[in-house]
Amino acid sequence: MQPEERKALHANYHDNHYGFPIHDDNELFGRLILEINQAGLSWETILKKEEGFRKAYADFDIKKVANFNEADRQRLLQDPGIIRNKLKVNAAIENAKTILGIQQEFGSFEKWLEHHHPKTKAEWVKLFKKTFKFTGGEIVGEFLMSIGYLPGAHDASCAIHAEVLKSNPKWMGS
Questions:
Q1: Active site residue: 27, 43, 44, 114, which one?
Q2: Which of 61, 129, 139, 159 is the most buried (most CB within 10 A)?
Q3: Rounded distance, CA 23 to CA 148, Å?
Q4: Model confidence pLDDT, tens digit, residues 88-136
Q5: Per-residue pLDDT averaged across 15-38, rounded?
């Protein structure tokens, strides 16, 4: 990938997604999948494969992914458009099942997050490790920062920081 393409890839995520609240459960699930898959890899690798993930995981449709079977697991493990790691593939499917249960109990994944807000990063990590598969400290921290539940996505001197503030992220105390 050429430097300009790389810059554009990062700029789009940085300027339009990183730190902004997400109010759609499937998109929240998709972001969690991306963060889990980033473990041990560069974020650039994940951004380049984002469309592949979206396609492989049924446009991040929680109900569809929760119903993936062994044939789907094998298909995912053969898909060059995603990260072919058995633990990460299994985590996506199992986490979709968990989110279905959360939706039944709380109405939505977003409402579950709101129910537990505010928490420190350490408290969030403990909750996520108890609730989901493949969610260590770095993954949970980045996931919550990327969706506006923890501060730090942008430095106050960054022009996008002001845009994020306009979107009323949870960490502001809303």
A1: 43
A2: 139
A3: 11
A4: 999 999 999 999 999 999 999 999 999 999 999 999 999 999 999 999 9
A5: 98
Q: How far apart are CA 90 and CA 128, in angstroms?
A: 16
124 is catalytic: no
Convert the pLDDT of each residue in 47-95 to its tens digit.
Answer: 999 999 999 999 999 999 999 999 999 999 999 999 999 999 999 999 9
Ordered alpha helix ranges (H), the chain: 3-16, 25-38, 43-48, 50-56, 62-66, 70-78, 86-106, 109-116, 121-131, 137-146, 159-166
Q: Can 149 be counted among the known catalytic residues?
A: no
From CA 119, how far away is CA 3, in angstroms rounded? 38
**Identified catalytic residue from 4, 5, 13, 114:** 13
Q: Band the pLDDT of 174: cuts 50, 70, 90.
A: low
Task: Give residue 7's Cα distance to chain centre.
Answer: 21
Distance between CA 34 and CA 31 in Å, rounded? Answer: 5
- Is residue 35 part of the annotated active site? The answer reads yes
